[in-house]
User: Fold this.
Amino acid sequence: MVSDDPKGNANCIDGRITQLVTEVLHVDPTNPGMELIARAAECLRAGGLVAFPTETVYGLGAHALDRRALQRVFAAKERPANDPLIVHVTAIDDIEPLVVEIPRVARELAARFWPGPLTMVLRRSERVPDEVTAGLETVAIRVPSHPIAQALLRCARLPIAAPSANRFSRPSPTRAAHVLADLADRIDMILDGGPTTVGLESTVVDLVRRPPMVLRPGAIDAEALRAVIPDVRLRARPVDPGTAGLPAPGMLPKHYAPATPLILFEGDRASTIDAIAQTVRLRRERGQSVAILAFRDDLEPLRALGVQLLDLGNENDPPTVASRLYAALREGDELGVDVILVRNITTDRPLSTAIQDRLRRAASPTP
Ligand code: TXA
Ligand code: MG
Assistant:
């Protein structure tokens, strides 16, 4: 299929219309074959869009200094232009051209957490295009640890801007199939390196503010950050849409959502399970079909309800829950039910804050 609309089309490079076929390359996640990586790197250098796995979620990569490539990212994702992108680099020394200065605290955080799922917001240099920063005076940067991401960055020798490779407001992709479901025929290439390990996005910390602030809870827990920046603050609540001067537009309350309405029940385990059971009965009386995203220990008590259950893993093992959450939200959608129910995670172990944050954003308000 070839597009006849060069204007808002995601597949237009330098005025040429490329074929709307997304190539999927299978890459060994532990030992990526350099021939495939070199093809992907060449595609990026030519202004193409390449989805690739990171340890958190799949990213949609583009040459971070190529305005046209960046515009294609926004078109493919249907992402609003006021939502800035994260720039990925191989190591802290690569960020020098992108920022005004590298503060000491950034070096300390990098020594501790890079490569890894931490994104730092720093003062941008003139070289960073407005398409990356959405016109802000800051730029978000991270060094991913995934061997495919690392190999791609080293081979391309470019800073790579990469938002999560989903359509805007859909759950982030943790498998190549998720990327394909959202972006097939809108991007040039997908490096399929299997499921990502962490499953939730990086922690975004703003180092321009004093004291530093976590804008998005994520794979690195605030407690771990506190060991390096004791005065770091957490953003309390998602901001209301329409608020002026959003520090992170991805922080809108409704985000990462399945298409099916998701209802989140908050409270202790016993009362939320009761409320879920009651809601199932009510909904079915109304002729509606229901699915439940359930923690492992809840499967047994919920089975009697006779609705579809999707296993989120053991609640006391947040890394497992995190790695399953987005896939489970997408599977829930595929069941074609009228409503999906889930309860909050009640442990306070690392990662639970990020899980709770994503559940709240994915859910509609409890009725
Ligand atoms: O784990 C991740 O961070 C993944 C992988 C691919 O690296 N990327 C990711 O990108 O989640 P994205 O675009 O889906 O989310 C980036 C978040 C958004 O909430 C955005 O608003 C925020 O980072 N952000 C980017 N630049 C910013 C800036 N200059 N100031 C404040 N927030 C920024
Ligand atoms: Mg995203």
